[in-house]
Amino acid sequence: MRGGPGSAAVQGNAQGNASRYSRAMCALPAPARSLWLALTRAGAYGALHGSHPGDPYLGLTVPVQAAAELREALTTLAQAEVRATLLLPPALAARMPQDVWAATRAGHEIAGWGEPRDLPLLEVTAGHPVTAWALEEADLGRPHLAWLARRGVHPLPLPSPSPEPGLTLRVPPGDLAPTLARLKKLGYRLVPVRDLPGLRPATPRDLLLHLYRRLVDDRFERAHGVVPLTERADAVMRVAAQPVPPELPFPPGTPAAELHLHSPRLVGLTSRSALRAYRAYQRSLRDVAHALRERPELREAQAVFAVTLFHGPLEKNGFTLVPLPPLRARVYGLGFRLMRAVYGTTTGPSETEPKLAWMPREAFLARHG
């Protein structure tokens, strides 16, 4: 369905209240709500996931709740030369057809938002077929998902809480200007969700990966004080303040900085290009140097170390390698094999035995800081 904005009558309030079904969903026990959330992450009813994590593309969505917000968003996006997916309730879109049509002409994607209804009204107003819809958690359930599926409309990916390559980020109109400037500086390429390269429906594996990250990675970060240094689109390092391991020539308890990889991102970069991944790895060492200088918990660290299979690149960047005791090496090796299976690594590392790589603080800063 293509053409200019329509003049269909608007029924109901533009914002509307949540439907009886939405209120019922909110009243359901947490396990029931979590079930539909999980099914959506697994691709139920054609729900979308995102694109490849090795590319710096980020699907930008902008929720619009009033005519003034749409005009503000269009102005800011035009100034930044960025196109986005605009999330619009159909009734609100029909109140401002000229503005919605201007958004279509500017190359923005129009997607539904909220309780699914009035799809023809939104399509006529937008001047193109609407193929995506943003559902809030309270709206996730069989009736709404089935309603969209019967009409060939895909639920949009649930927005990421922070920028991640290949995922989507929801930014309110009032926050667009500073957020767009920051994301561009961090190396992200902002596009409408429909323009994410390789955009695909979610699969059960996406759900499993999400659960692993929440139940294993996130808990590990909290338990060990791991700080992500991954704001930049190709940054792959995390760091934690830890005492030196016993193999290093320091008194017990000497503060040190332990390196950890952002495994999903490194796997994605490597699958695109080994050279790109290696360069990102080297740039990320500069992020660690900056953290050593600026973060209070790392200012006393006397060494930088990592237990890793990827010790070859570290050795080339000035690290000394130390063999691990056989039992520790086996335990770490099992853990690394599990992570490789979870994150779908297709290319194995050049080394099969983990080693301890380390470098004195001042030598690290002199080389990478």
From TrEMBL:
Matching InterPro entries: YkoP-like_dom (IPR054467)
Location of the YkoP-like domain: 256-367
Pfam family, one: YkoP
Protein name: YkoP-like domain-containing protein
